[in-house]
């Protein structure tokens, strides 16, 4: 019996690891031991409930106004005891969080193999996204198995000297997750979302909270959104606002009094996925939404200067627009007034997954540990069905 320990701590990690946990749990020859750090508490718990995941270990490290150093030391200390007790054959970490890097480091100290899900993404700027770019690169140095979502991510790893045999192109597990969450007749738990006229209003979903956008950038974004809402009357902006007080103070001070702007607390994963399905377009600084939204056929304007996810930019469904006030306003207005431009982005290919990434990862694990003889098939970029 192979013992595999998925470790994650934030909502974005949990969303993408959840279908993989389910796939691991369905394998009769794998013992799955889930550990969460709770780097994010409430938002993590939402996903655990949604996917009915019951961690064996919960480090519960989140503290008010926590620093990166505090998260790092708490996770490292907590995992030392967990890994010593369980001695898994392999840990699985996801993406680019502090939990991800520190978990890989802790496993390395114990000489335990590390599998990196969503490996190989690069912006090649260590400050954007911060601290995620460095977390992901350091995790890649420590990892033994690299589950790259796309060929582009694999190529990045090969250029950095990772052996080809250790890289598996799987697609992104977030597309697997959306098979669980997106439903045709979904009823929102927040009744305000049920009462929106999605047919006659062009709904713009916005998320912006990244550290590099704190201060003037997020103020620029919000002022541009304010101008859009006032000048283009058939729009309706829905902005689930991160709980960080720096973000909330800026957003509410600029947008709280606009009739066709709805400011919400962060919403559950299934609520967000179904909102994305019904909306007209998305404006975001999130990495995950850059992957999720193309599968739903909606244009994405990225409120950042660089992205570690270039595939959708190349495909045309995502456009990087930065945080300059005039640029944010003009690019959003273009999609709202030029149907050809909107259709061009909405009909671009989906480069991120086919819903089978978790199966490929589990098959790859079995192959590496000698449980089966054939490597898994690799994900190839597909057009939208």
Automatic annotation (TrEMBL):
| Record-linked Gene3D superfamilies | Glycogen Phosphorylase B
Q: What is its EC number?
A: 5.1.3.14
State the UniProt keywords alphabetically. Answer: Isomerase
One Gene Ontology MF term: UDP-N-acetylglucosamine 2-epimerase activity
The UDP-N-acetylglucosamine 2-epimerase domain, residue ranges? 22-366
Q: Which top EC class is given?
A: isomerase
Please give one Pfam family short name: Epimerase_2
Asked if Cell membrane is a keyword of the record, the answer is: no
Q: Record keywords: Isomerase included?
A: yes
CDD domains linked? GTB_UDP-GlcNAc_2-Epimerase
Record family assignment: Belongs to the UDP-N-acetylglucosamine 2-epimerase family.
Provide the protein name: UDP-N-acetylglucosamine 2-epimerase (non-hydrolyzing)
